[in-house]
Write a structure and sequence with these properties.
The protein has two helices and seven strands; from the N terminus they run ααβββββββ. By secondary structure, it is an alpha+beta fold. It folds into two domains: 68 residues, no CATH class; 95 residues, Immunoglobulin-like (Sandwich). It is rod-shaped and about 110 Å long. The model has no long low-confidence stretch (mean pLDDT 90). Bound molecules: calcium ion. The site of calcium ion has 10 residues, from strand 1.
Length: 173
């Protein structure tokens, strides 16, 4: 494209009649210089991560990952997802009535169901979390129960999780 432009401009320059040859070649050189400067400025704008208009190159947080391949484009310490399995065992302390339990990872509801009197359930929960220069995350696991003869209950634990690992936790509600 750049070479095409230069060729067109040069042919325009060589068609100018009535000018001395020396002056023509100066005009050609100026045109070439202007085209090169504009091309360099455009290339610098497109290829510089901090200012590029292209998502495949632009890097908002400066972590070295383009926004298109950055799971957290506004956080320079994180850029990809980690996944861990959390095995949650929930015991009921209600021996007479059924209860309804809910399991939250941080503030997100992941599982819920009914729990028989004095019974327990085991649930496998997949946890996704952002990692990067820090390879672990803190997850607060909360289990609540409603109903039953003892009233509502909450049990909670905080876990440090790493990508690809599995964890077992036990709760009584
Ligand atoms: Ca990032």
């Amino acid at each position: 494209m750049l070479f095409y432009l230069i060729t067109v401009l040069l042919s325009m320059g060589s068609n100018m009649e009535g000018r001395p040859k020396k002056e023509d070649s100066r005009i050609e050189l100026v045109i070439i210089a202007v085209v090169i400067v504009v091309a360099v400025i455009l290339a610098a704008w497109v290829l510089t991560p901090s200012i590029s208009p292209l998502a495949g190159i632009h890097d908002t947080d400066g972590d070295g990952r383009a926004d298109l391949r950055d799971a957290a484009p506004d956080d320079r310490t994180k850029w990809t997802w980690g996944v861990a399995t959390i095995v949650v065992t929930i015991h009921s302390q209600h021996l007479v009535n059924e209860t309804h339990y809910k399991v939250y990872l941080n503030e997100y509801l992941k599982k819920e169901g009914d729990l028989a009197p004095g019974g327990h359930v085991v649930k496998f929960i997949s946890a996704r979390f952002l990692i990067g220069s820090i390879d672990s995350a803190q997850i607060v696991v909360t289990v609540t129960s409603t109903g039953g003869e003892l009233g509502d209950h909450t049990d909670q634990d905080t876990l440090t999780v790493y990508d690809g690992q599995a964890y077992a936790l036990s709760f009584t509600v």
